[in-house]
Amino acid sequence: MIAIRNISKTFGTNAVLKNISAEFHPGKVNFIIGRSGSGKSVMTKCMVGLMGVDEGEIDYDGRIFNLLDKEGKKEIRQEMGMLFQGAALFTSMTVEENIMFPLKMLGNMNKGEMKDRVNESLKRVNLEGKNSLYPSELSGGMQKRTGIARAIALNPKYLFCDEPNSGLDPQTSIVIDNLIRDLTHEFQSTTIVISHDMNSVIEIGDNIHFLHQGALWWKGDKKELLHADDNILSDFVFPSDFMKTIRARLRGM
Q1: Rg value, the chain, Cα
Q2: Which of 23, 106, 215, 228 sits 20 to 30 Å CA-CA off 129?
Q3: Strands 80-83 and 2-11
């Protein structure tokens, strides 16, 4: 489990995160949603150590990440997998080389073990035999699946996904959603997804955290989301009359 307690982050006079506390549970797909500028990305960057917090604690199963030394943080990072927005593959590297990258940086495997792990990761995302292809030779969905393969190469205990469906068509988005959900259950990882895709939130969101103006405004599960009587939350999740009609139908099911 990841727990954040009373974390705050300020840039100059701009309070981006305001005393936020939340828990993210293993074996669950935990969503962070909110409008652009609400603090989602900053909060995630603080959680993975790309930014420091001004106040508060970031707890990884009893280890206070933001208080650890370099070696202590490296140990936790070896337990993380990250899927970046747009897959963020190295264009000059093959699929295999992209997936090997975190194994070389953070793992302790020999070349044969790394090769086996690459093939195992590719099998899990249905990309067997694509080792020698370059990102330019892959479709958008295949690039995203390669990014997921790289993210799970270290068998992560904690999996972070930043806008995993960005730029994908609806059918491919469903494939990626199902893959994230299935891998979360397989690994029993603590999965955190930042997303603007409300279909994904409603389909696979186990726990949902809504940030508004730097504060944790609402949290709950997808059933509670459908029945929440909060205008700020509802206007974000169901912004159009069509979406409000869909919500009403889902409430009645």
Answers
A1: 19
A2: 106
A3: unpaired
- What is the per-residue pLDDT for 237? 87
Which tokens in the block code for residue 7? 């974390």
- Element spanning 74, H or E: helix 70-77
Which residues lie below 8 Å from residue 35, measured CB to CB, with a gap of 6+? 212, 236
Q: What are phi and psi of 57, to 5 degrees?
A: -130, 145
| Helix, strand and coil in the chain, % to nearest 5 | 45, 25, 30
Global pTM value: 0.88
11-20, 170-179, 206-215, 242-251: range with lowest mean pLDDT: 242-251
Q: What distance in Å separates the CA atoms of residue 105 and residue 249, rounded to the nearest whole number?
A: 49
pLDDT(111) > 80: yes
